[in-house]
Inverse folding.
């Protein structure tokens, strides 16, 4: 069989489960100001939101539409945030899982386009993949620089007794000097509860989330297979990820490849320690903050309460919510490779809307739990005349543990 | 379409809001129906009435076929126009609330606004639009008025519509600036001339492009009560309807929803419910005492008719109740609920209440016969859903739907399409008409028109749209004499 549309064919059941009603583009309630942030900041034609993309996918499968260069705009104009799936509300009556996996459909469309017509895919995505081939990470940072963040911390590289906790820092934090302090704070917080985490330092692999999201599915599968072996060899029973994208990828894509360790994002890990009385957040952090749910952590992993549980017990901290929060949260704009789409212009517009909404809710700081969200929101904030500080929740937890004010 | 025409359109609405790219255009080839969307040469998202007027004038000059689309939520397809040559107007960019007038109790909005957005704006201002049967999160205001207003309550609340005629002329109907040049705002539909507003309601968009609509508002009912009882047979249901509408009409806040046996199976595992009807009365008003009194009045009728209560249904009714400033614990079924059931054979009906006892059983029997055929052909029916509600004093609107297990196979969709079409031919044969004036349903409805009505429509269409450019082929065959 030809491998034409080989990835979209796998998604046929999801594609044909869509009734094309348009709720994914048009729903509005008091908690859902709109569904698709990208549709709001573009010309708004139907191919910018889920229904149009799925109709296009069906046309490709049925042969009534051929691939053309403008397909790239439909395929890559998406944050893969999954809000359309949430608002659609159609679920499998047996599993209660969303019936129309728009994220899977768009990833498959990207994969087939990238495979069959790479010349139509923007150069920025090719650069990410080329960097992965050369440096094993999408940001093109040499392996030798990946352990700069942990210099002087003297952290173990393997579990001594098979019960260790592996701190998975992720490419974005390891490759971004401005975020190195974040990883060091995470270590400090873990040490405050008696956990000296294992790290992989320069040998920490890229989790393959970015590659998968932009359509390099074969590359991502190879990376998962290779990484699973390396992660199992650490002997750690638990992997704690600092990045929401890594956590989602490791938790959901590595199990079938044989990963033995339990995977969690650091937020639920710390929330559990808090509930057990092992983590004490006793220093004041007197700020009114808004928590932005990263899509990978919220909609894709179902983690909404734990970050709020952590923030609410910090003395002096006042947590406010935007109208669209929790499962209805609107993506920060950086998901699904949007920092590359149209050179990131749309990503910044979307982030600006999110920040303005937080300000209207009374927040003076934005807190999130994903370096992608943080960097994009921060970039938008810096472009605003009156932006607000954007932090990671680890910053707040660390301040509450050690009494250090940012 | 000629490139110079596309350039002219770009100059009118701006480069960003015009596309002739193949994938972008293809996204409009489907809507919520199994009957298809529009095969367009170019898709345009106009931003205001003036832009629509200039586009229509251009289309009229050059004979360019135009199809208008709102939320794309029809269940019978869109007008075919001239496939491959259409200029498709995607109206959803025109989604602003132009004027909320709390003193005059009206709202004016652009016609592309999705009903949910309009309802939210009204609710925020303390008002309410009565649209119980509208799929509010998918349908646009203009689309609802053009294609489906007959069943949804809002018909009577429309005061004025701004319409762009096929030649680009802008008309404002209703008692207000349209009928008095010295008036600033619309306040009454019928003042100053014939009710031309009504002419554009239910027209399927064939007489003009709706761009702005003024709607009369109702005060937001702050208190909701629900009562749910089980009735054993259709006769009891119809008597309940008769007494209910006699008691509550014209009050618009007390919809009575009746679910048939198929729907019961979806809500309850109780086999005893397999041949009963579940009657849900929603009571909405302004004080707890008022609503409690209404619930008691409903309960008295239900008792007289042998209505039975169950703990499960009483608990459901309690969940739906709310007081002032309280959120109900439960929403009515969203579209997602139905979308989860599989490929839908929507089989709606609207008929005089007095014909229900005779006709309704025939509709259910017709569906069951067709489901036997589906079974023989290997198509799995996953759910049945029967629903009926008095739409006013005289008529009942409802559905006897069936839902089939998903399949990418074209045979299933062909079967369901044929089932929908055959059902409508059957109901038209019984003397019924459908509330939807969309796609293939408009052609079917037009097939039942009397000679005089058909002549009147054709005359109006020829006068308003002499080149037959707007939504051509919606009601009548584009190439026939009376189709212009």
């Amino acid at each position: 069989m030809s491998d034409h549309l080989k990835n979209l064919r796998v998604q046929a059941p999801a594609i044909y489960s869509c009734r094309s009603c348009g709720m994914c583009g048009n729903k509005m309630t008091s908690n859902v100001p709109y569904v698709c942030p990208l549709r709001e900041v573009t010309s708004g034609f139907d191919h910018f939101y889920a229904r149009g993309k799925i109709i296009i996918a069906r046309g490709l499968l049925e042969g009534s539409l051929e691939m053309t260069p403008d397909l790239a705009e439909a395929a890559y104009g998406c944050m893969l945030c999954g809000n359309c799936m949430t608002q659609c509300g159609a679920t499998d009556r047996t599993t209660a899982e969303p019936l129309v996996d728009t994220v899977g459909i768009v990833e498959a469309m990207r994969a087939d386009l990238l495979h069959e017509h790479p010349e139509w895919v923007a150069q920025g995505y090719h650069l990410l993949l080329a960097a992965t081939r050369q440096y094993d990470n999408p940001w093109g940072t040499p392996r030798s620089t990946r352990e700069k963040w942990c210099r002087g911390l003297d952290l173990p590289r393997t579990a001594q007794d098979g019960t260790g906790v592996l701190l998975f820092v992720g490419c974005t934090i390891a490759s971004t000097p401005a975020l190195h302090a974040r990883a060091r704070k995470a270590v400090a917080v873990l040490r405050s509860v008696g956990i000296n985490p294992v790290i992989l330092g320069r040998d920490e692999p890229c989790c393959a989330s970015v590659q998968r999201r932009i359509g390099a599915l074969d590359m991502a599968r190879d990376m998962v297979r290779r990484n699973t072996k390396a992660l199992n060899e650490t002997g750690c029973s638990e992997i704690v990820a600092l990045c929401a994208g890594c956590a989602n990828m490791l938790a959901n894509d590595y199990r079938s490849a044989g990963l033995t360790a339990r995977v969690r994002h650091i937020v639920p890990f710390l929330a559990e320690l808090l509930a057990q009385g092992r983590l004490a957040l006793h220093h004041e952090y007197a700020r009114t903050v808004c928590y932005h749910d990263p899509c990978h952590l919220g909609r894709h992993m179902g983690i909404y309460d734990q970050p709020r549980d952590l923030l609410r017990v910090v003395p002096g901290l006042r947590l406010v919510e935007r109208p669209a929060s929790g499962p209805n949260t609107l993506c920060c704009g950086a998901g699904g490779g949007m920092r590359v789409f149209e050179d990131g212009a749309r990503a910044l517009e979307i982030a600006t809307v999110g920040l303005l909404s937080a300000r209207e809710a009374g927040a003076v700081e934005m807190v999130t739990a994903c370096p992608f969200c943080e960097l994009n929101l921060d970039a938008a904030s810096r472009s605003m005349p009156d932006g607000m500080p954007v932090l990671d929740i680890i910053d707040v937890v660390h301040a509450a543990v050690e009494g250090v004010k940012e | 379409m000629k490139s110079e025409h596309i350039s002219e359109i770009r100059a009118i609405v701006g480069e960003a809001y015009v596309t002739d790219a193949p994938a972008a255009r293809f996204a409009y080839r489907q809507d919520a129906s199994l009957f298809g969307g529009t095969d367009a040469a170019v898709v345009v998202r106009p931003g205001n009435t003036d832009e629509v007027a200039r586009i229509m004038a251009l289309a009229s000059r050059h004979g360019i076929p135009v199809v208008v689309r709102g939320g794309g939520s029809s269940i019978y397809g869109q007008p075919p126009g001239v496939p491959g040559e259409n200029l498709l107007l995607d109206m959803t960019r025109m989604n602003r609330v132009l004027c909320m007038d709390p003193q005059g109790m009206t709202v004016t909005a652009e016609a592309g606004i999705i009903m949910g957005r309009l309802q939210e704006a009204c609710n925020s201002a303390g008002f309410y639009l009565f649209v119980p049967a509208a799929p509010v999160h998918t349908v646009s205001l203009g689309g609802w008025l053009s294609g489906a207003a007959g069943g949804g309550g809002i018909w009577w609340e429309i005061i004025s519509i701004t319409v762009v005629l096929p030649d680009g002329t802008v008309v404002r109907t209703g008692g207000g600036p349209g009928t008095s040049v010295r008036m600033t705002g619309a306040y009454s539909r019928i003042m100053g001339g014939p009710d031309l507003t009504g002419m554009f309601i239910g027209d399927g968009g064939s007489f003009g492009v709706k761009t702005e609509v003024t709607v009369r508002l109702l005060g937001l009912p702050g208190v909701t009560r629900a009562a749910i009882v089980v009735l054993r047979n259709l006769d009891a249901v119809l008597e309940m309807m008769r007494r209910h509408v006699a008691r509550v009409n014209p009050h618009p806040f007390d919809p009575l929803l009746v679910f048939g046996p198929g729907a019961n199976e979806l809500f309850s595992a109780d086999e005893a419910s397999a041949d009963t009807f579940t009657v849900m009365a929603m009571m909405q008003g302004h004080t707890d005492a008022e609503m409690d009194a209404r619930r008691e009045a409903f309960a008295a009728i239900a008792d007289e008719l042998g209505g039975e209560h169950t703990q499960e249904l009483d608990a459901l009714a309690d969940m739906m109740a709310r007081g002032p400033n309280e959120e109900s614990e439960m929403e009515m079924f969203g579209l997602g609920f139905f979308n989860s059931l599989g490929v839908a054979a929507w089989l709606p009906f609207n008929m005089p209440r007095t014909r229900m006892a005779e006709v309704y059983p025939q509709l259910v029997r017709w569906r069951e016969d067709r489901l036997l055929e589906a079974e023989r052909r290997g198509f799995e029916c996953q759910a049945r859903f029967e629903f009926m509600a008095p739409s006013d004093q005289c008529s009942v609107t409802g559905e006897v739907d069936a839902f089939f297990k998903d399949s990418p196979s074209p045979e299933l969709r062909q079967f369901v399409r044929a089932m929908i079409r055959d059902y409508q031919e059957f109901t038209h044969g019984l003397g019924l008409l459908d509330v939807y004036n969309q796609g293939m349903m408009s052609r079917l409805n037009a097939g039942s028109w009397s000679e005089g009505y058909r002549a009147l429509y054709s005359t109006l269409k020829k006068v308003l749209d002499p080149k037959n450019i707007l939504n051509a082929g919606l009601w009548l065959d584009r190439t026939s004499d009376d189709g212009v």
Summary: Chain B touches chain A through 44 residues (CB under 8 Å).
